[in-house]
Design brief:
By secondary structure, the protein is of the alpha/beta class. The chain has a single domain (about 10-195), classed as Rossmann fold (3-Layer(aba) Sandwich), CATH 3.40.50. It is about 45% helix and about 20% strand. The strands form two sheets. Strands 2-7-1-8-9 form a five-stranded parallel beta sheet, sandwiched between helices. The protein has a four-stranded mixed beta sheet with strand order 4-3-6-5. Strand 5 and strand 6 (about 85-90) form a beta hairpin. The chain starts with 14 loop residues before the first strand and ends with a helix.
Length: about 220
């Protein structure tokens, strides 16, 4: 007869946190991975910044007023949040929890400070840092977007230097020198973690309670008789 614990093998989705400097290619790597792995999803962040012409509310971000954003903070609805350029950014907690319970692997694209907050609240999260192939390439990518003026590019580069110094706090580091290779490296990490101790926690607890402890108890009785 099938044991109850058999249904608990890696049943909860993983929480994968991706960080890296703006321009490192995180969004491209995530998009390519999601296209080939329907059981994974990116958690849409909330922000108070203005929506760009090519963005869609609820798909790219949840665009909120500052009042709405701060209400979610006060009521404990944000898993993590932070501020940049006078705008707030955060991760809605319920969306992450619901998706993981449904068995979805949830990907968060957040900064270093947010990643450390998530790791504290969710110790089973896997942290991956994406590096650009070179500093010159990073600067070129930021300029090429057309979104940023020279002052903002310089600010982002300054932040990038600070973030890269924190890469050793992450579980894995991927150099995005080639998008296809970076996506493959990312996939290997996620799939390798499926049967890790953290992913198997629910299974192990059920297995020990339902399979090991009763047998050990029986053995103890036999040995003491």
């Amino acid at each position: 007869m099938k044991k109850e614990y058999s249904d608990k093998i890696a049943e909860n989705g993983q929480l994968i946190v991706i960080s890296g400097p703006e321009g490192a290619g995180k969004s491209t790597v995530i998009k390519r991975y999601l296209g080939a792995h329907p059981n994974a999803m990116i958690c849409v962040s909330a922000t108070t910044r203005e929506k760009r012409a090519d963005e869609e509310d609820g798909k790219d971000y949840y665009f909120l007023s500052l009042t709405e954003f701060e209400r979610m903070i006060r009521t404990g609805q944000m898993l993590e949040y932070g501020y940049f350029n006078n705008n707030a950014y955060g991760t809605p907690k319920k969306a992450v929890e619901d998706a993981r319970k449904a068995g979805k692997n949830v990907i968060l694209d957040i900064d270093v400070v947010g990643a450390m907050k998530v790791k504290t609240l969710c110790p089973d999260a896997t942290l991956i840092f994406i590096l650009p192939p070179s500093w010159d390439e990073l600067e070129a990518r930021l300029v090429k977007t057309g979104y940023y003026d020279e002052k903002t590019v310089n600010t982002l580069l300054e932040i990038a230097g600070e973030e890269i110094e924190c890469a050793n706090l992450y579980d894995y580091v991927i150099i995005n020198d080639d998008v296809d290779k970076a996506v493959n490296r990312f996939a290997q990490i996620v799939h390798g973690n499926r049967y890790s101790r953290n992913s198997m926690k629910s299974f192990l607890e059920s297995y020990i309670e339902g399979e090991v402890k009763p047998k050990v108890k029986e053995l103890s009785k036999v040995l003491n008789d």
